[in-house]
Amino acid sequence: MPIAIKDSTIDITSEKLTKELAKEFTKYLKGGEFVFLYGEMGVGKTTFVKYFINEYQKINNLTQTEITSPTFSLLNEYQVKDIRIKHYDLFRINRKEDINNLDIFEKDNKLITLIEWPQLIADKQDIKFITLTFNYLNQLNDRTVDIKV
User: Which of 42, 52, 109, 119 could be a cystine partner for 32, CB 3.0 to 4.6 Å?
Assistant: First the structure.
């Protein structure tokens, strides 16, 4: 199923659709990208990240590992061949000043940075980023993701 990625809205009501989107998304990220994931708690951000990282592992002939939310650790890091993936969850950050200590904007062409709750970042340092906004629809029965490049 071909999925439009750039500047589009995609139905992710089922987990299968979320997995298909994550699989398609791996074709677009090669390193050096920052991806901001917006959306309410439970809308599918971490599920998307899980399928994205697992697909990246799969296409690189690596064992798929368990992907968990870094809500308490703030950062989980994965090495997939020569690409490093940093998955931040900033939900527990209380002060925007605390973000400065996380070195979120490390620039490296062998790094993909995925950030949940990026609205807590005051200074985005003029970086180019991809925005995924996860939404509930129809009284929480359906979900979509809006992609802006």
Answer: 109
Range of the domain at 118: 8-148
Q: Is the pTM of the predicted complex or chain greater than 0.85?
A: yes
- Identify whether the C-beta of residue 118 lies closer than 8 Å to the C-beta of residue 17: no
Q: What is the CATH number of the domain that holds 129?
A: 3.40.50.300
Q: For every one of its 149 residues, what pLDDT tens digit does the chain have, with 9 covering 90 and above?
A: 345 556 688 999 999 999 999 999 999 999 999 999 999 999 999 999 999 999 999 999 999 999 999 988 999 999 999 999 999 999 988 877 788 788 899 999 999 999 999 998 877 878 889 999 999 988 778 999 999 98
Give the start-end residues of each E strand in 13-69.
34-38
- Could you tell me if residue 1 is inside a domain? no
